[in-house]
């Protein structure tokens, strides 16, 4: 047997002997009348301490439940804030005006008022703005579901800022496409023809932009960080890519 093993065995035996001696000493102390009242008091305090620990454990569990509820409330508030922000930034430029019948009082109109109102009704109603599809903002749940290798150090706000810039480019492009040619100047007409030339059979009926549109209508830098965020937007099904003729088209889903 090695010397180290023998030393370990001796140490273990000595520890056992020391424990037995302490146990015998405590047993003899407990049998003395002078210490019985003190031991009973200590036992009573141990019971009280055990009850207090149980109450503290219950309180910790309740606080944990409350924390989880507050987290859910925070996520719901962030989602509502994101939707409200999206609505605020996408208010139609031209809202329908109230008709004359809506603002007329309950009193009966005179014949002169009726005649004066006739030309107003004869006017053609203003054309409503044509629909332009935009990508919705990423929710906190979607952001948390994105794999860590994809997010890196990107934040929730940085990703949604790119979504807003993409929407800005889409709106700028399709406002031009919806204009009559007669109202365009030379530079806008060049953009119009470029937009038409970038259409393919795969983008028919879709709303999309290319990198040139992003540079034209936004201050967003088309760099490595932009393409990393695009990967996340594809993962969250906000955009998809259509390639062809040496061009990448980012289609709004």
Question: In terms of topology, how is this protein built?
Answer:
Blueprint: H1 3-30, H2 33-89, H3 100-103, H4 111-122, H5 140-145, H6 148-151, H7 156-177, H8 186-197, E1 208-209, H9 211-217, H10 224-235, E2 239-244, E3 247-252
Antiparallel strand pairs: 1-3, 2-3
Helical segment count? 10
What is the structural class?
mainly alpha
| Share of residues in helices | 55-70%
Biggest β-sheet: strands ordered side by side in the sheet: 1-3-2
Explain this structure:
This protein has helices at 3-30, 33-89, 100-103, 111-122, 140-145, 148-151, 156-177, 186-197, 211-217, 224-235; strands at residues 208-209, 239-244, 247-252. With 253 residues, it is mainly α. Strands 1-3-2 form a three-stranded antiparallel β-sheet.
List the main descriptive attributes of the protein structure presented here.
65% helix, 253 residues, single chain, mainly alpha
Nutshell version of this structure?
The protein has 253 residues and is mainly alpha-helical.
């Amino acid at each position: 047997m090695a010397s180290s093993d023998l030393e370990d065995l001796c140490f273990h035996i000595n520890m056992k002997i020391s424990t037995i001696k302490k146990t015998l000493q405590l047993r003899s102390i407990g049998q003395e009348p002078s210490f019985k009242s003190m031991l009973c008091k200590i036992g009573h305090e141990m019971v009280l301490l055990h009850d207090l620990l149980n109450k503290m454990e219950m309180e910790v569990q309740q606080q944990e439940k409350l924390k989880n509820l507050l987290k859910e409330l925070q996520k719901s508030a962030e989602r509502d804030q994101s939707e409200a922000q999206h609505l605020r930034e996408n208010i139609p430029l031209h809202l329908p005006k109230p008709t004359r019948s809506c603002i007329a009082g309950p009193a009966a109109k005179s014949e002169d008022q009726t005649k004066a109102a006739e030309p107003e009704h004869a006017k053609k109603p203003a054309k409503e703005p044509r629909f332009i599809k935009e990508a919705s903002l990423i929710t906190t749940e979607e952001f948390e579901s994105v794999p860590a290798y994809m997010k890196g150090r990107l934040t929730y706000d940085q990703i949604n800022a790119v979504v807003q810039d993409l929407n800005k480019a889409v709106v700028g492009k399709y406002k031009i496409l919806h204009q009559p040619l007669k109202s365009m100047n030379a530079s806008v007409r060049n953009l119009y023809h470029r937009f038409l030339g970038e259409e393919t059979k795969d983008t028919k009926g879709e709303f999309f932009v290319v990198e040139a549109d992003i540079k034209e209508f936004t201050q967003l830098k088309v760099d490595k960080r932009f393409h990393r965020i695009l990967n996340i937007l594809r993962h969250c099904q906000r955009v998809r890519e259509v390639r062809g003729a040496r061009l990448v088209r980012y289609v709004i889903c």
